[in-house]
C-alpha cells in the first residue's frame, strides 16, 4: 500500500503517485489562520478544540491529525520543537488573545494588551481589526537621506558563534525527529531554525535596503554571505547526519525575491552574490543526505529566477505564485518540469479563493492541479497561507478536488 510518505517522495522524485499529495501547514507558508481553523474543524464535523498557534506572528494554527486525515493531507511538520505528529501537552498553554480567540500558545507571557484591545508581542502589534501581528513599516524603516545601514560583520560573526549548534540541542532535535518518524507514515517536513539559512534579498535591513547594498557594495555582501555560509555548513555537518534518517524535506530558506509584478533584484545579483553560496551549501547538504529534499520558499513574480534556483541546487520551490507577474501556471510547470518540484500554486489566493464562489474554487483547482501534476514533481496546497476570512467550505472544496485529480 502506498503511504503518504511514499506519495510525497514519489512526487518529489518526478514519479506520478497514485494521487496528488496534499499539504496543510507542512511549513509556515502553507498553513491556515488560527482564526479560520475552528470553523474548518466544525465544518468537517470534528469535535471542537483550542487551536494550537504555532506561529504567533502570522497567527497560524498547527493542524490536528484528524483534520489532516479529513483533508487527505500527506505531510507532518516539525517546527522549532513542536510537531503535529503527536500531542505535546507540556508545550501548550491557554491564552485567549483578549477574548478574540481561545487558543493554546507556547508562551502566554509574551503578550500584553493595551486599553484599546491591541495586543503586543515584542515590537509587533495586533489591533482588534487585524488577524496578524506586524511591525511599524513592516519592521523596515527607510531613510534615503542617511547612509545605508550595514550590519557590523564582527557582530554577525559573534552572533553566529552563539547560535552554533551544541550537543544538547542536537540530541534534543534528533530525539524529536526520531519520535515523529516512528509515529507516522506521513512525510516529515523539518522547519527548525537550526537548518534554515539566513541568506536572503530582504535580510539585514529589509527589502528596501539590502537590494541596494547588493548593487552599491557587492564586496561587503559577498563577505557577509561567506560568513553566513561558514556558519550554516558547521550546523549542517553537526545536525544533518543525526536526523537524515528521520526527515524527508528540510525547509531550508525563506527568501522572497518577487513583488506582485517583477523581481526585487536582478537575476545578475542572484547569480553573483547568492548562487555561489547556495551551491556550496546545497552541495554539502546533498553529500551528507542525498535522499532529503531541500525546500526554498520565495514569494512573488520569480518566474525569471527559476533556472537559477535550480542551478543553486534546490529540490523544491514554493509557493508557486503564478498569480504574480505575467506567466501562467502552465508556464511555471513547463519551466520546472522534471527539474525542480513545485509545492503550492493550487489556487489563486488573491482572487479566486477569497472572492470566488465554491464552484469557482473547484473549477480552478481542478484545472491547475491536472496540469501541475503532469510527470510528477507536484505537491498541492494554496498559494501561501489560508487567511482568516476564507470560508471553510472553500478550504474543504479545494482539498477534495485536488485529491480527485
Q: Can you put this structure into words, describing what you see?
A:
By secondary structure, this protein is an alpha/beta fold. It has a single domain (4-88, 151-403), classed as TIM Barrel (Alpha-Beta Barrel), CATH 3.20.20.210. 37% of the residues lie in helices and 13% in strands. The chain is built from 14 helices and 16 strands. The protein is globular and about 55 Å long. The chain starts with a helix and ends with a helix.
Q: Whole-number radius of gyration?
A: 21 Å
Total E-strand runs: 16
What fraction, in percent, of the residue positions are helical?
25-40%
The secondary-structure class comes to alpha/beta
The CATH topology turns out to be TIM Barrel
Number of helices: 14
Spatial order of the strands forming the largest sheet: 5-4-11-12-13-14-15-16
Structure in a nutshell:
The chain has helices spanning 4-12, 37-43, 65-71, 153-163, 167-183, 210-216, 218-243, 267-273, 275-288, 306-312, 329-336, 352-355, 358-372, 392-403, and strands at residues 32-33, 53-55, 60-61, 75-79, 82-83, 93-95, 103-105, 111-113, 119-121, 124-126, 187-190, 249-254, 293-297, 316-318, 341-343, 378-379. The chain is of the alpha/beta class and 405 residues long.
Amino acid at each position: 500500500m502506498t503511504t503518504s510518505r511514499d506519495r510525497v517522495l514519489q512526487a518529489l522524485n518526478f514519479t506520478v503517485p497514485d494521487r496528488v499529495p496534499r499539504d496543510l501547514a507542512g511549513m509556515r507558508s502553507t498553513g491556515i489562520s488560527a482564526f479560520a481553523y475552528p470553523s474548518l474543524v466544525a465544518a468537517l464535523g470534528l469535535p471542537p478544540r483550542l487551536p494550537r498557534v504555532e506561529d504567533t506572528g502570522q497567527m497560524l494554527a498547527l493542524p490536528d491529525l484528524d483534520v489532516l486525515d479529513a483533508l487527505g493531507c500527506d505531510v507532518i511538520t516539525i517546527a522549532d520543537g513542536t510537531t503535529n505528529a503527536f500531542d505535546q501537552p507540556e508545550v501548550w498553554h491557554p491564552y485567549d488573545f483578549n477574548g478574540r480567540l481561545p487558543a493554546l500558545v507556547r508562551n502566554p507571557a509574551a503578550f500584553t494588551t493595551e486599553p484599546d484591545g491591541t495586543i503586543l508581542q515584542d515590537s509587533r502589534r495586533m489591533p482588534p481589526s487585524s488577524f496578524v501581528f506586524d511591525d511599524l513599516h513592516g519592521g523596515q524603516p527607510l531613510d534615503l537621506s542617511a547612509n545605508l545601514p550595514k550590519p557590523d560583520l564582527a557582530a554577525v560573526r559573534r552572533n553566529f558563534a552563539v547560535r552554533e549548534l551544541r550537543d544538547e540541542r542536537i540530541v534534543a532535535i534528533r530525539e524529536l525527529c526520531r519520535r515523529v518518524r516512528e509515529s507516522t507514515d506521513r512525510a516529515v517536513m523539518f522547519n527548525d531554525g537550526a537548518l534554515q539559512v539566513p541568506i536572503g534579498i530582504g535580510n539585514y535591513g529589509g527589502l528596501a535596503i539590502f537590494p541596494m547594498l547588493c548593487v552599491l557594495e557587492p564586496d561587503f555582501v559577498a563577505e557577509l554571505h561567506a560568513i553566513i555560509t561558514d556558519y550554516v555548513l558547521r550546523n549542517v555537518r553537526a545536525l544533518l547526519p543525526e536526523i537524515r534518517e528521520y526527515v524527508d524535506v528540510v525547509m531550508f530558506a525563506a527568501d522572497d525575491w518577487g513583488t506582485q509584478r517583477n523581481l526585487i533584484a536582478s537575476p545578475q545579483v542572484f547569480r553573483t552574490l547568492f548562487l555561489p553560496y547556495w551551491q556550496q551549501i546545497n552541495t554539502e547538504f546533498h553529500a551528507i543526505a542525498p535522499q532529503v529534499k531541500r525546500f526554498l520558499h520565495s514569494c512573488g513574480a520569480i518566474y525569471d529566477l527559476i533556472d537559477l534556483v535550480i542551478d543553486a541546487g534546490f529540490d523544491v520551490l514554493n509557493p508557486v505564485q503564478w498569480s504574480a507577474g505575467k506567466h501562467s501556471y502552465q508556464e511555471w510547470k513547463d519551466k520546472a518540469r522534471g527539474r525542480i518540484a513545485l509545492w503550492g500554486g493550487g489556487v489563486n489566493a488573491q482572487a479566486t479563493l477569497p472572492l470566488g464562489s465554491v464552484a469557482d474554487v473547484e473549477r480552478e483547482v481542478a484545472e491547475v492541479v491536472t496540469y501541475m501534476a503532469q510527470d510528477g514533481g507536484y505537491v498541492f496546497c494554496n498559494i501561501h497561507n489560508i487567511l482568516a476570512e476564507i470560508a471553510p467550505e472553500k478550504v474543504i472544496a479545494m482539498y477534495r478536488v485536488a485529491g480527485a485529480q
